[in-house]
Amino acid sequence: MNAKTETTDACDLRFGQVGIACVRVRRVDAAALCEELERRVRAAPQMFSRAAVVLDLSHLLQLPDDGTVDALLEAVRSAGMLPVGLAYGTSETEALASRMGLPLIAKFRAAYEPAAATPAAETRAPEPVARPEPILAPPEAGHPLGAQHHDGSVRSGQQIYARDRDLIVTGAIANGAEVIADGNIHIYGGLRGRAMAGAQGDEKARIYVSDFRAELVAIAGQYRVFEQIPDDLEGRSVQCWLEGEKLLIAKL
């Protein structure tokens, strides 16, 4: 049991719908948190260096005191990321955020069981944020709106987001560019940048790419970063999907 505790990761790092990372703290250990996040920054500096992050304390058995939270925030900063607020949770979290002068980010509403009820190594996908029904019809299978189309390439630094629907891109996604959808993503060109499907937590979302050379792909917050594309996937047509909490990629 002790060995299992020692090998437990310090945190889970999940990616939000508009490029904000959510750091879900799994144990109160500022040094381990800093080390874990530094490792993530080293693995993908273009993605995580100076990235805006939200701190989620919902998985801890007890809410830490102000001094401990301040140490965790400093650990995030020391790792090279920029904490911008706390994930919306309980009234105690709201009071903590108010005392520390931090905003609550409702998009990352806590949806995790307390540590006493859930094994520490287990992760759960965030619950989608409730939104009014779109005033558009008729609904289609899967997502309520028809797919959003983007003709042509997506340039470096550009972001395309398909809210409540699938996204279809007919051109290439450049390095440093980002495409996001609440549903599936279909890319009929080369993916050299980042693609994130199921941005509101849809674990059944998939990503289809005609020419795979991605920096990062993510589904419902679970992501994979590529410093070097595996030889059997580079330049191939692939699909990406979740199996449990593992993001899988296979040739089409």
Automatic annotation (TrEMBL):
<dbReference type="InterPro" id="IPR005526">
    <property type="entry name" value="Septum_form_inhib_MinC_C"/>
</dbReference>
<dbReference type="GO" id="GO:0000902">
    <property type="term" value="P:cell morphogenesis"/>
</dbReference>
<keyword id="KW-0131">Cell cycle</keyword>
<dbReference type="GO" id="GO:1901891">
    <property type="term" value="P:regulation of cell septum assembly"/>
</dbReference>
<dbReference type="GO" id="GO:0051302">
    <property type="term" value="P:regulation of cell division"/>
</dbReference>
<dbReference type="Pfam" id="PF03775">
    <property type="entry name" value="MinC_C"/>
</dbReference>
<keyword id="KW-0717">Septation</keyword>
<dbReference type="InterPro" id="IPR007874">
    <property type="entry name" value="MinC_N"/>
</dbReference>
<feature type="compositionally biased region" description="Low complexity">
    <location>
        <begin position="117"/>
        <end position="128"/>
    </location>
</feature>
<dbReference type="InterPro" id="IPR016098">
    <property type="entry name" value="CAP/MinC_C"/>
</dbReference>
<feature type="region of interest" description="Disordered">
    <location>
        <begin position="117"/>
        <end position="156"/>
    </location>
</feature>
<protein>
    <recommendedName>
        <fullName>Probable septum site-determining protein MinC</fullName>
    </recommendedName>
</protein>
<dbReference type="InterPro" id="IPR036145">
    <property type="entry name" value="MinC_C_sf"/>
</dbReference>
<dbReference type="GO" id="GO:0000917">
    <property type="term" value="P:division septum assembly"/>
</dbReference>
<dbReference type="InterPro" id="IPR013033">
    <property type="entry name" value="MinC"/>
</dbReference>
<comment type="function">
    <text>Cell division inhibitor that blocks the formation of polar Z ring septums. Rapidly oscillates between the poles of the cell to destabilize FtsZ filaments that have formed before they mature into polar Z rings. Prevents FtsZ polymerization.</text>
</comment>
<feature type="domain" description="Septum formation inhibitor MinC C-terminal">
    <location>
        <begin position="151"/>
        <end position="249"/>
    </location>
</feature>
<comment type="subunit">
    <text>Interacts with MinD and FtsZ.</text>
</comment>
<feature type="domain" description="Septum formation inhibitor MinC N-terminal">
    <location>
        <begin position="14"/>
        <end position="83"/>
    </location>
</feature>
<comment type="similarity">
    <text>Belongs to the MinC family.</text>
</comment>
<keyword id="KW-0132">Cell division</keyword>
<dbReference type="Pfam" id="PF05209">
    <property type="entry name" value="MinC_N"/>
</dbReference>
